[in-house]
Amino acid sequence: MMARVYTTTLCLGLLGLALLVANSISDATELRPEAGELAEPIVLSDRCPASFEQTEAGVCELRNMYQFYDSLQGRGVGGTKTALPEHRDGFSPEQIDLGRYLFFDPALSGDGSTSCASCHHPNLGFSDGRARAVGVAGHAVKRSSPTLWNVAFLKHLFWDARADSLEEQAQGPLYSPEEMANTPAQLLATLQDNETYRRLFRQAFPDGELDEISLGQVYLSLAAFQTSLISLNSRYDRYAHGFHAALSDKEIEGMNVFRSFVARCAECHTPPLFTNQQVAVIGSPEPEGLPLDIGAEATWNAPKMKGGFKVPTLRNIAKTAPYMHSGRFGTLREAVAFYTGGRGHAVPEGVDMHIHWHIWEPNLTDVELDRLVDFLGALTDETFTPAIRDAVPSGLTPIGVSPLNKSNKTSHTSDSVARDSGDSAELTLGAAS
Ligand code: HEC
Ligand code: HEC
Question: Is residue 264 in contact with ligand 2, taking CB distance under 6 Å?
């Protein structure tokens, strides 16, 4: 294990090195237990994660430069000094940390094979490097795993915006037979039967009822952890806060295309989150041979929304290939080139789709497309990636292995797809190098 960590160190960049050092400092006090047993009792952190400040009431509140800026009004679309939308915070450090253990623990799935992190892996941009997700026993999920960075700001969740809170959302994967295939009763029993979890829940919810863990506490803790995933310190952000040299000339060119009235990207992918949080019909293609995904039509039972999907954030987008709800595009270049293909060019014949008016024919040149990709690369910031623990309370291997299903992949080999491996330990270290 240590030897592996050292070899990985060699190929880490400066930032990665700093992160690894930070990780090993925080891990230094922990013994490394054998699989299945816990060498040291797990204790929940009583400190807020990076970018949060602990209030007098003992909860964590987000602190960020963007909070100094005014609201979106009157700033024009795509302006750099725009405020962030409302967000979820105010969880205690213990709740956030408990959520982290739950998130990485495969015990949350019906057969103990799959954790949230199996499909939302920190080293793969909190996505999974797959075109479409794979759940317990190799079940194919029909959409790709979105990133979880900055979900604290999202009003609607899932590609088709069908959930309105993180607590509601979590119940989707937990109980879906294709994803984690658990039941509320079994999930509660698993946690309640585990002495460590009973202790940790008491610590995170000191006012809770007797000794009973509740499902509400499980969902809340998962939400608390996810809202701590803040990515707002990319080179783009430094530029936005006034450090002009943070972006290269090419990236600035790309930013100008992105914000232009010709490309119109910023109309939907609006800074600083790079999403306006709306659902839009853009008519992106399904993978070869797969039926049309009607998307948000089902959410509102509205044919006008056929093929409508939530505008995804573009934060850390260089890390989360393949792209779109379907994972149809293996590279960022292909995803961006989709927008020059002509309005509705990928809509199957005979399907009536109400394509959004900002999707048209901008006729971007190859150079402009390259610059857009350059700019999107400047939106990467994983500084506050949380540490993956060596052990979780169930004693199972953290993260778990979501079985490989090769036919689920696109034929393109983007970096993260090529890295994909059934061995979660390899995945963890390999992706960091
Ligand atoms: C089998 C893979 C898989 C597992 C396991 C999984 N997810 Fe997901 N997750 C997905 C996919 C795929 C989507 C998109 C589904 C859709 O839009 O219909 C998604 C969507 C989400 C979203 C919405 C993000 C957004 O931008 O709308 C959140 C939040 C999320 N998952 C959190 C979790 C949590 C918490 C767990 C564990 C309880 C979990 N996921 C387990 C694959 C998975
Ligand atoms: C009308 C709103 C709208 C405009 C304008 C728009 N997008 Fe999008 N974008 C979306 C939606 C909606 C999706 C998700 C569609 C899907 O999954 O089928 C998306 C997806 C993407 C993705 C893939 C994200 C992921 O997580 O997989 C990228 C990259 C992207 N857009 C870049 C751009 C660029 C670059 C431009 C400008 C040339 C642009 N978009 C213009 C709405 C828009």
Answer: yes
